[in-house]
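Summary for the steering committee. One of the milestones for this cycle was to obtain a three-dimensional model of the protein with pyridoxal-5'-phosphate bound, which we needed before selecting residues for the alanine scan. The sequence and ligand used are listed below.
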Amino acid sequence: MNSSLSNIYFDTNKYWKKELQNSIKTLEELIDFLGKERIKKSPYSYILEESYKKNFQKIHQNFRFQVTKYYISLANLYNQNCPILLQILPNIKEIEDPVFKEKDPLREEIHSPIPELVHRYPDRVLWYLSHNCAVYCRFCMRKRKVSHPSTISIKQNLFSIIEYIKNNKNIKEVILSGGDPLSLEDKFIEEILFHLKRIEHLYSIRIHTRMPVTLPYRITEELCNILEKYYPVTVVTHFNHPIELTDIVYEKIKFLKKSGVLVLNQSVLLKNINDNASILEELFLKLIKFGIKPYYLHHCDEVYGTSHFRVSLQKGIEIIRQLQGRNPGIALPKYVVDLPDGGGKIPIVPNILKNMIHQIRNIYVIIMLIIKYIN
Ligand SMILES: *Cc1c(COP(=O)(O)O)cnc(C)c1O
Ligand code: SF4
C-alpha cells in the first residue's frame, strides 16, 4: 500500500468532524479564505459590496451558508461560471424568486404518514434523517427544511418509523436521505441499518449522500466496515461537474466499493454549471472511470428560490439527444422530471420517433435473416 493510500485508510472519525467544524460558515470567512485582493480582480468582486453583505445575511437566515475547505479549494475565482462557486454562493433570487412560488411543489409533506418519512410510491419510502449537510447547495430541492438549525430526534422517530415499515409489506426499499444522512454519527447509521436489515420484506437499502463530493474524508474505515457488515447497501452520490471528481474521491469510492457497496450517482441539470453536452459527456464518462454508475440526471424541480438554476426542458432534451451515441450506454443516466403534486419521476426519452424507425429497421433485418435461413 502506498503512503497516500494508507493515509486514506487510517483517517478517522475525528478527522472529518474537525474538517466539518473548520468549514466556512460566514461571508467574512469566505472572503478571508479566497483572499480579498484576488476577489477584487475577479468576476466575483460583487461579493465585497455592502449590499451583497446585507443580502447574504437575509438569505443565510432562510437557508444557511456553509462550505468545506476541501470543496471550496476546487473553485476557480477567475472563471465567471465556476461550477463550484455557482453551487455555493448565496444569490438574492433565493428569497425573491420571480418564477417559482412553492416551497414543496412535490408535496412531500402531504405524502408523509409520519413526520420525516415520505411515502409517495407504494414500494419505497424516503427517510429524512438530518437537516445537516457538509455544504449547502443553493439549488437544494428540500431547502424548505434542510439546514434548519434544530436537530431531528432520531431516537424518538426510530421506533415509529421502523414499526411503520414493518407493518407495510408493500415497502421494498428504504432510502436514507435528508439533508445528509452521513452527517450522523456512525453509531446511528449502524443502529438504523441493524433494524432495517431485520425486516424480511425489504429488498434494498439506499443511502443518498453528497459527502463523497463535499467531504470525502467522511468515508472512513469505520463507516466502510459498517456498510460491509450490512451488505448489500447502495450509496447514491451527487456529482454535478467533472471537476468534483478528484484523486481523493477516486480512492474513497474504491474503498466504498471494496466494502461491497454499489455506488450510483444522480446529478441535477443546472444553468451555467453543467447545462451543455460536453460537460455532461465528461462527467458521465469520468463517473464510470471512478466506478460510479450515472443513475439519474434530474431536471431541476420547481422549488421556490431555485429558478435561477433552471434549464428549459427543451434544452435538457437537446443535450440528452446529443449525448446519445456519444457516450456508451453505461455512461448515460436516465433524464427524469419529477411531476408537481407528487406525480413522481418520469423519464424523458428524446427521439422516440427515431427510436421507432430504428425498431422497424431491426425487425426488417430479423425478417431478412429468417428468410435467408429458410432458403
Ligand atoms: C426519488 C424518490 C424516490 C426514489 O425513486 P427512484 O426512482 O426509485 O430512484 C423515492 N421516494 C421519493 C419521495 C422520491 O422523491
Ligand atoms: S447535499 Fe443534498 S440535501 Fe444537502 S444541500 Fe445539497 S442538495 Fe440539499
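Key point for the committee: Strands lie at 117-121, 124-128, 173-177, 204-208, 234-237, 262-268, 293-298, 334-339, 344-347.
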